[in-house]
């Protein structure tokens, strides 16, 4: 396939960016989207030009690094797929593809298509863990967790923290991400002791980072590559209201 790429180029965080057009030729439909960008960068290097910066790591749909906005959709046109697992057979010969970084104040652009998602790390550091002493390691089968609870916790834990929910939301809300992390631990007995401080601290950090408010449109769940459910946002709201109603921290 021969394609026209409209790629966002930006030198650094403070410089102005813009769309630059590129042509790529002889792209195999079996290539992944990132492999296609590799071909573009090889062409640019041969021409003595600076390659396009973009984030990637595992290229197996696990790490969440490959955060690209493709033709107006987070991770591209295929639902339930990360950018690295999107294949060029989803496009046609002669197509024009617009490639942009995540757009959110809390995700500043480092360069070109690479954004700083460390705001997610700081939210996790605020409370997305179990820090209590649980004693010796018990056999997993000795902890009585109903299967439906274990399944729901596991589904929440599949969040890869890619930020597609933020990019897809008109308010740049991080509620789906935060709710998945809160739900995962709130559902399990190991997380019950710290559940109140956890949700208070994580929501406070989310607000501090500058993410927008949730208005329950559902675009976050629609574009999530691993299918995190909106049900988790309901769990987060319930946990937060319970914590605030019984907390000594009334601020």
TrEMBL record:
Similarity comment: Belongs to the succinate dehydrogenase/fumarate reductase iron-sulfur protein family.
Organism: Hymenobacter lapidiphilus
GO MF entries: 2 iron, 2 sulfur cluster binding; electron transfer activity
Pfam families: Fer2_3, Fer4_8
Name of the protein this chain belongs to: Succinate dehydrogenase/fumarate reductase iron-sulfur subunit
GO-annotated biological processes: aerobic respiration; respiratory electron transport chain
4Fe-4S ferredoxin-type domain sequence ranges: 150-180
Names of required cofactors: [3Fe-4S] cluster; [2Fe-2S] cluster
Domain of life per record: Bacteria
């Amino acid at each position: 396939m021969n394609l026209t790429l409209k790629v966002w180029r930006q030198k650094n965080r403070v410089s102005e960016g813009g769309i630059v057009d590129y042509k790529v030729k002889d792209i195999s439909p079996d290539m992944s989207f990132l492999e296609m960008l590799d071909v573009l960068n090889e062409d640019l290097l041969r021409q003595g030009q600076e390659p396009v910066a973009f984030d990637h790591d595992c290229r197996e749909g696990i790490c969440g690094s490959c955060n690209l906005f493709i033709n107006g959709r987070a991770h591209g046109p295929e639902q339930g797929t990360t950018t690295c697992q999107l294949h060029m057979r989803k496009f046609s010969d002669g197509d024009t593809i617009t490639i942009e970084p995540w757009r959110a104040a809390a995700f500043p652009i480092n360069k070109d298509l690479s954004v700083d998602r460390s705001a997610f790390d700081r939210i996790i550091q605020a409370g997305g863990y179990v820090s209590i002493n649980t004693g010796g390691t018990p056999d997993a089968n000795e902890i009585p967790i109903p299967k439906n609870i274990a399944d729901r916790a596991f589904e929440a834990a599949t969040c890869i923290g890619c930020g597609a929910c933020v990019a897809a939301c008109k308010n740049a809300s991080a509620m789906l991400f935060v709710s998945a992390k809160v739900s995962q631990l709130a559902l399990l007995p190991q997380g019950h002791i710290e559940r109140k401080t956890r949700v208070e601290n994580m929501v406070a950090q989310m607000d501090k980072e500058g993410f927008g408010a949730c208005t329950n449109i559902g675009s976050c769940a629609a574009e999530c590559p691993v299918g995190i459910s909106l049900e988790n946002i309901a769990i987060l709201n319930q946990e937060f209201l319970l914590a605030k109603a019984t907390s000594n921290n009334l601020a």
